[in-house]
Amino acid sequence: MASPLQFSIRALLIFIAVVAAILGLVVSARNQARVQETRNILKTVGLAYHHCVSETGSPPAKIADMNWCGCGAGALAAKVIKDGLVVVVWNANVRTSENSKHVLGYATSVPTAGGPVLMADGTVKTVTVDEFHQLPKVPTIADETETTP
Q1: What are the residue ranges spanned by the domains of the chain?
Q2: Cys staple from 74: which of 26, 69, 126, 146, with CB 3.0 to 4.6 Å?
């Protein structure tokens, strides 16, 4: 027959296992929420970027251009870029047919950890580190004028 001490140790081990499982679920939920928040931020940046192009006829060349474009998304986009949470390609030609293949922006952690990237067509997809480094960045207006004969 088991002693009371054996029951106590067994109960303690079960308790520890349950707590560890719950903590794992909490950490997982927080990570998923963080990824979703980053995806939403990138979508907002994409909306602001495309809105600037629609309003002015040319892509934004700097943070101030995003802020100036007159849409509510522009101020948030400018803030997350200024705060260093997101990197964007300035002067990007987002009016090409290859937009779904080119990166327009990404969270600063993506080059070393993978994660969500903003494609030039405004969609957001999740990539690994290797996939990120293989994806082309969207061509800029300057790139296109330099290669035009």
Answers
A1: 4-147
A2: 69
Alpha-carbon distance of 135 to 101, in angstroms, equals 7
pLDDT in tens, 99-129: 788 999 999 999 999 999 999 999 999 999 9
CA dihedral 19, 21, 26, 32 (to 10 degrees): 170
pLDDT band at 2 (very low <50, low <70, confident <90, very high): low
Average pLDDT, the chain: 84
Local confidence band at 66 (pLDDT 50, 70, 90 cut-offs): confident
Sign for the CA dihedral angle at 44, 104, 51, 59 comes to positive
pLDDT of residue 104: 94
Residues in the chain: 149
Give bridge partners of residue 118 from the DSSP assignment: 105, 124
Please tell me the pTM assigned to this model. 0.76
CB 74 within 8 A of CB 62: no
